[in-house]
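User: Hello! I'm new to structural biology and keep hearing that structure can be predicted from sequence alone. Could you demonstrate with Envelope stress response membrane protein PspB? Please show me the input and the output so I can see what each looks like.

Assistant: Of course. The first part below is the input, the amino acid sequence of Envelope stress response membrane protein PspB. The second part is the output, the predicted structure written as tokens.
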Amino acid sequence: MEEALTALIVIGGLFVALPIIIFHYITKWKTAATLTTSDESLLEELHAMARRLDDRMDTVERIISADNPDWRPARLTSSDDQDDYGLEQVERLLKERVRK
């Protein structure tokens, strides 16, 4: 009798309790990996700030270039496709998200 009860508890724990624990932590892991609405709004705010700072840097570089024609900017200018590729991709993704 005692052996049957022990076997029943072990089998129950193995086939019921263990999967429940595993699926619980899988669910926790998946929900932690998603962005919340506050995270999304923070990312949008940071993107807007990065765009403004990029525009300001372009303005400063134009002013310095006008004052000193021999000066060469240390970074790429916004007219180059490589410079704004990341920002353009983020803007495209934001526009697609707004459409949905």
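User: So the tokens describe the shape?

Assistant: Right, they're a compact way of writing down the 3D structure. Reading them back into a model, for example: Residues 23 and 29 are 10 Å apart (CA to CA).
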